[in-house]
Amino acid sequence: TTTMQRDTIRFWDDACQLMAAGDYNGALGVFEAVPVMSAKIVFNMGLCRQSLSQWDAAVAAFDDAVNRDKHLAIAYFQRSIALHKLKKNREALRDMDEAYERLRGNDRIDYK
Fold first, then answer.
1. Contacts for 73 with CB less than 8 Å, ≥ 6 apart
2. How far apart are CA 11 and CA 90, in angstroms?
3. CB 75 within 8 A of CB 45
4. Which residues, including other chains, have CB under 8 Å from residue 40's CB and lie 6 or more apart?
5. Separation CA 28–CA 4 (nearest Å)
């Protein structure tokens, strides 16, 4: 792997540990320092924003995640939750339907 990939993995691990400890602001700071943003990185940034009740910023992060990976069903699902919190229920329902569609017939996400 390249140095940049190693750094990304190191940042990812550090940020996930901060999230697990409930330090969402600290995790955001680490995620923002990742050298190469990916759908999974910005998705996790959205989770941090949700945990901080920063609903508009969460929607923006999930927008970024689905723009980077149209098949990331969980990002559509999480965006639907943030949209619901913003009382944008029509958009939230659309995203919930989109998440279901992205599961491609599966009843759950299997991370194996």
1. 99, 100, 102, 103, 109
2. 36
3. no
4. 65, 69, 72
5. 19
Q: How does DSSP assign 66-86, residue by residue?
A: HHH-TT-HHHHHHHHHHHHHT
Residue reference for tokens 């990916």:
38
Burial label for 20, CB within 10 Å (0-12, 13-18, 19+), is exposed
Within 8 A by CB and 6+ apart from 106, the residues are none
Q: Which residue has the tokens 């940042």?
A: 11
DSSP label of 99: H
From first to last of its 112 residues, the chain has per-residue pLDDT tens of 588 888 888 999 999 999 999 999 999 999 999 888 999 999 999 999 999 999 999 999 999 999 999 999 999 999 999 999 999 999 999 999 999 888 876 666 665 5
Transcribe 13-74 into DSSP letters.
Answer: HHHHHHHHTT-HHHHHHHHHT-SS--HHHHHHHHHHHHHTT-HHHHHHHHHHHHHH-TT-HH
